[in-house]
User: Fold this.
Amino acid sequence: MSCFLQRVVIPLLIFTIATPISMGDFEEVSESRINDSEISRYLRDLCSDTEKSKQCWKIIEPEINRFTDTDIRNIAGVVIDLAIVKSRDISDQLNQLYRDSGNDALKEKYRSCSQNYYDANSNLDFVRRSLNSGNFQEITSVVDNAEEELKSCKREFGRESFDPAHIRNRNKEFRNYVDIVRTATNRFLRNIDRKA
Assistant:
């Protein structure tokens, strides 16, 4: 009889205890998937408000894991972080081009644009700190300043300008990031205004 208990009853007890635990895990996974789909929907909607929604989604989709919820402030913060990383990448590339170039005119353009990206990065960092601190008054004008830095670099590599490193393309790419930041921060600021 005791052998029967060991072979049948004990595994049955283990099964009945383990089943509710694993079902609870399943429910958590399901909630997480629903939350992920809400985040995805919100981010697609955010991209639809940008000037170039397809490019926005190409930027956002590979980074979707960084978005943990649909809180407007958190989403704006992640978007700003993505833009800061991109501006640093471009600035680093410009600094390397400056060091490697033997053409003095190009060197000056690379140096100037690198400074523009450094300043744009500082502006974006200010916006991120403003979001975190609750000091929202200057966010719009500082995002505008970041865009002005981008335009200054764009002027360095105008249509007729020699551009072997395709900086114009990098400027267009970064312009999409700034547009996403502008859209996300504007949504956040509108939400704040509604609550006030």
